[in-house]
C-alpha cells in the first residue's frame, strides 16, 4: 500500500510539473507572438506551438486532478496511528482489562433480560417496528420517564461536577463536517444521508469537535470541554445481524457525549480525566462495570487509544459496552485544520481532540432495568435518579 501511495504521489508531482511547465511555455510563447506581430513578422510557428499546448494542457490538467483526487481519497482512508501503549491484537478478545469497579448484584431469583422486563414498563418494540422497521423502539410510560431522568442526570453530573459546557448542536451536517471527525469517506454506509446532501449525525462528537474547525485558538483557551445530549442516527450497515433483539443496538438512540480540545502535552491526562467522568456516572448509578483498553484491531478509525467501559448485565450474564472514550491526538485536527498558538510563540500547532460517551442513554436504561429488577417485574429506581422522578423509587409493570 505504501508503494502504491508513493507511486501515486510521484505521478501527481510529475504531472504538476508538466502542467506548470506547459503553462509557462504557453505564456512565454504568447508574449513572443505579441512582439512578432507588433514588429510585423510571421508568428505562424509560435502560434502553432501555442495551439498544441492549448490542446495538450486540458488533458494533462484533468489527469493531474484525477491522480490527485485518487491520492487524497486513499490518504483519507488511512486510520490514525495507535499510541505505543495500545496492545496489539486483531479483535475484542485481545483487549486488556484495566480494572473493575462496583459490585455485581445478587439475586434470589433468575434475573431476566431487559427485553423480557421492558415491555411492561414501556419499551414497545412492536410499535417501533411498525412505525419505522427493525431497530426502532417506541418508548413510553415508566421507561420514557426513566430515559429522560437518565439523560438529565448525566448532563447535570458532567456540567455541575466535572466542568463540561453544555451545548445544543445541529443534528444535520455537511460532508466536510463528517470528514473532519473521520466518518467520511470510509463509513458513509453506516450513516444516514438526506436528499439535500446533509448527514444525520451518528454522535454529537461530529458537531462538537468541528466547532473549532478552521480556527486558531490561544493556548489560554484550552482545554475546551463540551457535552451534549442528542439523538444519534446510525444505519449500522457494518453491524448487520448483531443485537437485533431488544434495545441494545438501535438506528436511532440518545447519547450524552463528551468532547475535549486540548494541547498535545495535556491530552493523555485529559483522556484519563474524561474516562473517569464516565466512570463516575456509572458509580453514582450503583452499576458494576470494567474498563478495557482496546487493542489495535478493535479501535475506531480516528482513535489513537480507546478505553471502553463495559457494564455488567445480569440478564445476559455478560459485560456490554456502555461508553467508549478515545483520544484522537491531532488526527481529526489535521482534517479540520484546527490549531492553537502556544503562549509566546508565533507558529501554530494542531490541537488534540478527545471524545467519549457519558453515557449512551438507552444502554444505561438497559443496565438499570436488568440490575435493579425485582422478582415481581418491577424495577427499583437508583437513588440518584429519584429526584428526577419526583421521589419515585420503583417502576411498576403495567402488565404481566
Short recap of the structure:
37% of the residues lie in helices and 20% in strands.
Describe the model.
This protein is an alpha+beta fold and 400 residues long. It folds into two domains: 2-76; 92-395, Bira Bifunctional Protein, Domain 2 (BirA Bifunctional Protein, domain 2, 2-Layer Sandwich). It contains ten helices and 17 strands. The protein has an eight-stranded mixed sheet. A three-stranded mixed sheet has the order 7-13-14, with no helix packed on it. Strands 2-3 form a two-stranded antiparallel sheet. Helix 5 (141-161) packs across helix 10. It is elongated, with a radius of gyration of 28 Å.
Rounded to an integer in angstroms, the radius of gyration calculated over CA atoms is 28 Å
CATH level 4 superfamily of the largest domain: Bira Bifunctional Protein, Domain 2
CATH architecture assignment name of the largest domain: 2-Layer Sandwich
| Low-pLDDT runs | none
Mean pLDDT figure: 93
Indicate the CATH topology of the largest domain: BirA Bifunctional Protein, domain 2
Q: Percentage of helical residues?
A: 25-40%
CATH class of the largest domain, anyone?
Alpha Beta
Per DSSP, the total helix count is 10
Amino acid at each position: 500500500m505504501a508503494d502504491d501511495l508513493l507511486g501515486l504521489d510521484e505521478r501527481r508531482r510529475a504531472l504538476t510539473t508538466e502542467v506548470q511547465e506547459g503553462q509557462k511555455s504557453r505564456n512565454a510563447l504568447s508574449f513572443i507572438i505579441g512582439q512578432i506581430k507588433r514588429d510585423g513578422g510571421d508568428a505562424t510557428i509560435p502560434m502553432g506551438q501555442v495551439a498544441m499546448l492549448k490542446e495538450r494542457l486540458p488533458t494533462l490538467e484533468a489527469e493531474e486532478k484525477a491522480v490527485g483526487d485518487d491520492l487524497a481519497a486513499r490518504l483519507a482512508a488511512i486510520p490514525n496511528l495507535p499510541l505505543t501503549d495500545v496492545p496489539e491484537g486483531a479483535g475484542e478478545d485481545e483487549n486488556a482489562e484495566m480494572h473493575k469497579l462496583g459490585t455485581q448484584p445478587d439475586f434470589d431469583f433468575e434475573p431476566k433480560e431487559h427485553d423480557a422486563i421492558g415491555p411492561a414498563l414501556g419499551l414497545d418494540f412492536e410499535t417501533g417496528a411498525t412505525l419505522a422497521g427493525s431497530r426502532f423502539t417506541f418508548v413510553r410510560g415508566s421507561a420514557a420517564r426513566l430515559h429522560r431522568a437518565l439523560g438529565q442526570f448525566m448532563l447535570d453530573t458532567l456540567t455541575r461536577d466535572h466542568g463540561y459546557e453544555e451545548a445544543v448542536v445541529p443534528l444535520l451536517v455537511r460532508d466536510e463536517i463528517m470528514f473532519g471527525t473521520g466518518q467520511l469517506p470510509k463509513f458513509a454506509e453506516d450513516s444516514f444521508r438526506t436528499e439535500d446532501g446533509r448527514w444525520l449525525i451518528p454522535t454529537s462528537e461530529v458537531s462538537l469537535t468541528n466547532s473549532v474547525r478552521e480556527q486558531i485558538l490561544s493556548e489560554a483557551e484550552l482545554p475546551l470541554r463540551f457535552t451534549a445530549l442528542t439523538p444519534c442516527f446510525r444505519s449500522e450497515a457494518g453491524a448487520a445481524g448483531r443485537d437485533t433483539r431488544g434495545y441494545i443496538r438501535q438506528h436511532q438512540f440518545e447519547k450524552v457525549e463528551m468532547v475535549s480540545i486540548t494541547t498535545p502535552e495535556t491530552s493523555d491526562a485529559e483522556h484519563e480525566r474524561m474516562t473517569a467522568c464516565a466512570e463516575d456516572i456509572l458509580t453514582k448509578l450503583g452499576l458494576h462495570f470494567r474498563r478495557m483498553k482496546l487493542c489495535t484491531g478493535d479501535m475506531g478509525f480516528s482513535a489513537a487509544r480507546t478505553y471502553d467501559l463495559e457494564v455488567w448485565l445480569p440478564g445476559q450474564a455478560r459485560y456490554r459496552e456502555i461508553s467508549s472514550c478515545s483520544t484522537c491526538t491531532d488526527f481529526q485536527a489535521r482534517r479540520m485544520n484546527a490549531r492553537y498558538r502556544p503562549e509566546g510563540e508565533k507558529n501554530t500547532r494542531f490541537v488534540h481532540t478527545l471524545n467519549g460517551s457519558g453515557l449512551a442513554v438507552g444502554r444505561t436504561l438497559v443496565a438499570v432495568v436488568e440490575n435493579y429488577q425485582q422478582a415481581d417485574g418491577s424495577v427499583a429506581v437508583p437513588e440518584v435518579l429519584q429526584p428526577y422522578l419526583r421521589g419515585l423509587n420503583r417502576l411498576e409493570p403495567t402488565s404481566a
